[in-house]
Sequence to fold (410 residues):
Amino acid sequence: MKYGWSGGSGLSGFFTPEDFLLTHPPLKEDRTSDVVVIGGGLSGLLCAYELLKGGRSVCLCTSHTVGNGASRYGAGILCGDSGADLTRLRQTKGRDTAVSWYRLSSAGVEQVEHIVAEIGSKCDFRRRDVFYYTADGNPDSLREEYRWRRHVGTPCRWLDRDACTEAFSFPCSGGILSENCGAELNLVRFCRDLEQWILLHGGEIFEGTRVERIEGGTDGYLCRSGSHAISSDFVVDARGGEALKRSPHRGQRVTVFSIVTEPVASFAGWQDRCILKSRDSCTYLRTTPDHRIVFSGAVSSVLSSDGSVGGLDLSAACRGKYRTLEEELREMFFGIPRIRREFGFCQTVILPRGGLPSFGRDPRWKGLFYLYPFGEAGIASAAVGASWIARMVADPSVKSPVYLEESSSG
Ligand SMILES: Cc1cc2nc3c(=O)[nH]c(=O)nc-3n(C[C@H](O)[C@H](O)[C@H](O)COP(=O)(O)OP(=O)(O)OC[C@H]3O[C@@H](n4cnc5c(N)ncnc54)[C@H](O)[C@@H]3O)c2cc1C
Fold:
């Protein structure tokens, strides 16, 4: 099966079929642990990592394999911003929440960098500049965004039309170049390295173990899966999209399409191989260490054939989307010879209504925490959320730093 595999060293490839074979046994007996983490995507793994570092015993249960779910299809881009622009966030959430969340999510990139170094992850983490641009003839609204970013202390500069023409081959009337604020990584590899660290530090992982029910009481919690249960003092719900399926905060359901090219001979018309993010359309571009281009974000209402969250789909509709992305890429970078798509992938996701991720303590059950890092800053917010959850577990008086979305575990 070639799907999803970009060959090469195996480190810069996205994922191989072997990455998703079950390697840990399911829960086969009743257990006890300080904390049960539900979900083996990036959020669950980062929570387990932080909690183990804090001296807690941890059992992580996940319904399929580790690293599955949205974490399998992430493009591995860290933009160093909040995932939404500050101007828009300010309008919907108010100034204080916008600024606070923006700073927190920027710090998330540093946190990820730190974790990568600490666990010695070979996920190809690389710092990059981020260029946030518009092709709209009137870039004034983006200028306002620029002023806000400067105001909150982001090291960035404004590129006018002439500077853009010099730096990039695609049309752009203006943009914000944030220096060294972003990063790229191979998300599946990062998850796999976290998994190894967790095992080495005494964590237990149960794959193929779907937690069907959480029961709470004065003496802690019982997480039930089939005929077995784990009792614990704390539970972290990191079920990803599953958690939103029945949530009142559930918003739009969309499919995100991505393509990965074969290695290209040069990056003509692409200054410093920075991360590119368009304000006009929901698109992101990055390069890989083995000279490929990752183009992500043709959001559409086309759903996976089974309507599921996280399904793969090779139907004609999907192939059409991949072709469109490939053509768009060739137009943007006409100076790069022979841009050829090697593979494409897509995932259906449910977006939260408020557009922001959420993490915190359940209002009813004080030992139950949730971490739902959806959206464009998913990786950074998973890191921020996991470290706060570990602090909240250690100290009941600690509250989550920003009240992001009123949410509770469903
Ligand atoms: C196409 C796409 C591209 C993206 N690109 C980027 C990007 O470039 N940069 C970025 O920052 N973010 C990106 N994101 C977002 C980022 O990937 C996610 O925010 C992040 O991976 C979410 O991780 P998670 O662990 O919360 O959820 P998931 O990865 O979905 O993991 C949840 C896990 O919980 C398990 N589970 C569910 N229910 C149960 C249960 N009852 N019991 C046990 N286990 C259960 C699931 O099987 C799954 O393994 C992208 C997302 C998508 C879909």
